[in-house]
Design a protein that fits this description.
alpha+beta, Beta Polymerase, domain 2, eight-stranded mixed β-sheet, 9 helices, globular, disordered C terminus
Amino acid sequence: MGFLVNEVVLEYDARLLEHTEKGSYLKWENLFINLPRAKSESPWVCGGVIRRALLGQKQDADIDYFFRDELKRLQFADDMEAIGAEILYECEQNRTWKWMDKKIQECKLNYFPTIEECLKSFDFTICQFGWDGFRFYVGPYSLLDTGEMRLKVNTIRYQVNTIRRIAKYLNQGFTISNEELAEILLEISKEPQKIAETVGKTVSQ
């Protein structure tokens, strides 16, 4: 089955409701207050922050912005400076901003022609949630796997980062099968030199 991104109406799957914190609500105006607006042509807000908002969970994750091209990203950076946001950290992959009590990631490693292509690049299905200012997008298995608290691989592009993220999601209560672990280890075994170089860069930093 090919990857499809579906427009989401705010009607929750019963499995998702089991993991929704009591008394919580979707309040987008609180989540994105004064931040640059997500737009159909980018920037897009994608990842765990959208999943947590749909579940009504406490927001303790970074807000990740993705872009169509460098021009859109640079405009976003100008907008962040205009509201008085502070740069906390910058590397080749992203720039992290602080605004009020929020941490915002400006993802600059890759650009994508559409939000659908952006979501296709994510390593786990539970991360394939997006918002373009008008519509929610999810991967074909994202709601199911989130409802089951199940960690499933979508694609592996950065092996070391994927391994690190497994530990993070296990701490959040997700589970991963032996089959999924085997798939990840198989991908890692294909490029040992690349893994060694990535780990070396991390250690040297």
